[in-house]
Amino acid sequence: WSEPRPTYTPRKTAAGTERQGESAMLHDVLRNRVIRFFNRALYPGDTFTREVVGLTAIWHEISTDGGRTFAEPRQVITAGGTPDSPAPGVNRGENSMMISFSVPFVDSKGRIILPMQRLHKAPLSLSPYLVPLDAGCLIGECAADGGISWTAGEMVCTDLAKSSRGLYEPAIAELKDGRLLMVCRGSNASLQTVPGRKWACHSEDAGATWSAPSPWAYDTGELFFSPSTGSRLIRSSKNGRLYWIGNITPTNPNGNLPRYPLVIGEVDESSTRLVHGSVRMIDNREEAEDEKMQISNFRVFEDRGTGDFRLAAARLFFDSLETTATWEYRIAVL
Question: C-alpha angle 105/228/48, rounded to 5°?
Fold first, then answer.
């Protein structure tokens, strides 16, 4: 690897500090371009507060030379929207839509599916870490000027007594029959007697509408515990199967913790459930490591040459925020 270099530096303004984060890259093979999506947020007091969450927007930039250079960034705005009201139900300063652990893709009809989340307008908590969210996606199609024309799909929510932060960080994939499967992060933070789960639903119209979300289960019908972490759906071009990567715990988690072990398993595309017998561990906490360590924030892609998955993750230690080097895991796909 080459030496790392910064791609963005926070910008001081009269209203506060402007920052970018949560980059999500898309290789749009059909149109021979690379698209980078990111959040742009204003920090009025230069630190993360509840106010920042309402001052966040999704932006994107397009490259036609393989990612070497990018055109000027544009804010993602749906038809009829404005920079201050970029999508239905979103108003700057009151709430926002944003991406987090998002992996956009091009579906079989050539549409861009961008997984995203929307903040409730009236949060029940002033804590910036316990705000309720809805999950869904934006649907992009080619615009006359060569850009992207956006529409917003239905946003999916659940009872906050079952998931204290609602549904967010959706992982979405197209199934072989054309439906979309969405697996969302939930949370039992402040609800320790409630089981921590991943939540799932499906769409038959490219994310315009969704089935009612329910706790995601194994193909046996058994429910499993999962902490409040992001996850990923990824299809292998080698064997055509769809896989899920995320955290599953043997006992009920406490909000975000524990964030281990990290596992991979196959999705049964008929039932849209996780195949119990296919689940394999990628990595786990070692005995000498702190119980609050994390193996949860990762990126994964398919190696073009071998067809295997290459996953990058750092071991984060929660109390100190100390990280080790980023490790690369190579997962053989048979």
Answer: 85
Q: Is there a contact between 59 and 40 (Cβ–Cβ < 8 Å)?
A: yes
Q: What is the mean pLDDT of residues 185-212?
A: 96
The count of C-alpha atoms lying within 13 angstroms of the C-alpha of 172, restricted to the half-sphere facing its C-beta, is: 34
Dig out the tokens for 35 from the structure. 């698209």
Cα–Cα separations (whole angstroms), residue 12 to 23, 44, 52, 54, 252: 20, 10, 15, 19, 43
Note the pLDDT tens digit of each residue in 238-293: 999 999 999 999 999 999 999 999 999 999 999 999 999 999 999 999 998 889 89
**In the chain, pLDDT over 70 holds for what percent of residues?**
96
What's the predicted TM-score (pTM) here? Answer: 0.95
Beta strands in 29-110 (DSSP E): 33-43, 56-63, 74-75, 97-98, 105-106
Helix (H) or strand (E) holding 113: strand 112-119
* Count of CB atoms situated within 10 Å of the CB of 295: 23
Q: Give φ, ψ of 53 to 5 degrees.
A: -60, -30
Query: What pLDDT is recorded for position 123?
Result: 56
Picking from 189, 171, 188, the residue whose alpha carbon sits closest to that of residue 180 is: 171
Coil/strand/helix, residue 277: helix
